[in-house]
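Fig. S4 source data, part A: sequence.
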Amino acid sequence: MSTQPNGDIWQHCLEHAALSDMGLRRSNNQDSIAVSLASGQESWNQKGHLFLVADGMGAHAAGELASRMAADTIPLTYRKLAEWPPAVALREAVVAANARIHQRGEASDDFRGMGTTVTTLVLLPEGAVVAHVGDSRAYRLRGQRFEQLTFDHSLVWEMSAVHRVSEHRIPDYVPKNIITRSLGPNAEVEVDVEGPFSIETGDVFLLCSDGLSGPVQDQEMGTIIGCLPPADAARALVDLANLRGGPDNITAIVVRVTGPQVARSTGAEPRAEPRPPARPVHPLLWTLLAVFALGTLGAAAIRSTPGVLAALAGAALAALLVLLQRRGPGAPDRPRDARPLGKGPYRTYDCTPNGEFVDRLARVVGQLSDAAAHEDWQVHWQQFNALRSEADAATFAADYPAAVRLYCGALCFMMDQLRRQRRGHAGGMI
């Protein structure tokens, strides 16, 4: 995991939480996370906040290494390309990560063919930009509208796009876990860049690996992140995925926009990022400037007023060209504007809290309670039963957002109790 300690200067306008769990059937965690917040206002204006989820693939340590390399390389490369337009810099950062992972894989038989998915979200003044390879996902919740911003690079989704049918209509014999793109296995990679998508106060973004989006339905994810604060939502999502089998590593980043992105000082003023170096000036321009300067002196010496004026005009023009070239960007000449990239969003769901989802949560909480009682584990029953009773009351009153929040609270409380029991026993969780 890679993070930056700048959250304190953005707490009044941004909440985020990142959580990664090994799951119940894996012996190691091949998922990686990166969070790179802008160090101050200038950094925000230039490059924004970056969030990343990567899901590694390969024999044991290989996938873990690949995802960690992506999480390390992409934020660092993106911020080094300070003078590049953000969308271009983000794409180049992903390409650089692919080259590094591929090179490392080719250098060792143990890591040959290793790869990773990657989904990177950057929040910028002009909107949210996503760079994406693989089947990890990025979503945006606005109100009750939950949108998948990324296209799954999987066999099922590719076949769905070709035949123009829902992925649910693809025959069951087509493997669901085959992805068509990833970082690392090949020297070249095609990167999807989506956005910018508009950002409004109250928007919630979710990045996740398929260890979450597989067991937990899209509408369920959207409802939970809409009803709970980011830290509680991330915990509830991971716990729910584990309760449904936890077949893979589970990773989630939840980001809520709570106000305009204005940094505030926490004592020492954040140090501004260095400006990119000026571009070198072509030697011909320096030569012309020198020639016209000497011509001005020569014309003045022979008292030729027309000559002085002509030479001064030439010198001024050459000086202007020098200034323009020195101030020009060193990156590809691509304008930073709001023209949309990609075709997202690709799926849209209504995530209004409802009785059906609340009933499902209630059943899960009941099953947890029965399992804990049957195994005679030590549980703080008074606190658990209080949460469950409040959730039941909210359900009876049809206050479904409160019911979701309280049932998720009871679920997470019991899962925490069971994790404590698991640490003291060699057996499984439930």
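Fig. S4 source data, part B ends here. DSSP finds twelve helices and twelve strands in the chain.
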